Amino acid sequence: MAGVGQDQQPGAGDHGGDVFSVGALDGLVVVAEAPIYLYAHDTERRQLALSMLKKAFVEGIRTDHHDWSFAITLDRATKDGHPNLPLLNDLTKVANNDLNTEGLDKYTEWSQAYASPYFGD
After folding, report:
1. Structural domain for 92, as ranges
2. What is the mean pLDDT of the chain?
């Protein structure tokens, strides 16, 4: 996946370079992981990432790995001066089923995001 040091998952070579397409990787729920990386690192697509996450979370989609570590992503976002680290941290918790989506309602950015279609929808 996008995190340095993560083992490549089976089927990872089969996505044709489009890691953000739904179902691109066998065995992973990409729509709960890839938008977190976008929100963390891509300033131009940050709002799109929130919309994608909102749709995924509303539909009950979470990572397949309840212990998936976003530590590298969070560390890098901190070093890069991410404008909303608390929201990013809570998004990772929801993705891993460690926090209910209601825990995101305190963030204006989250409340204003709409549930958009995923890439390829």
Report:
1. 20-112
2. 78
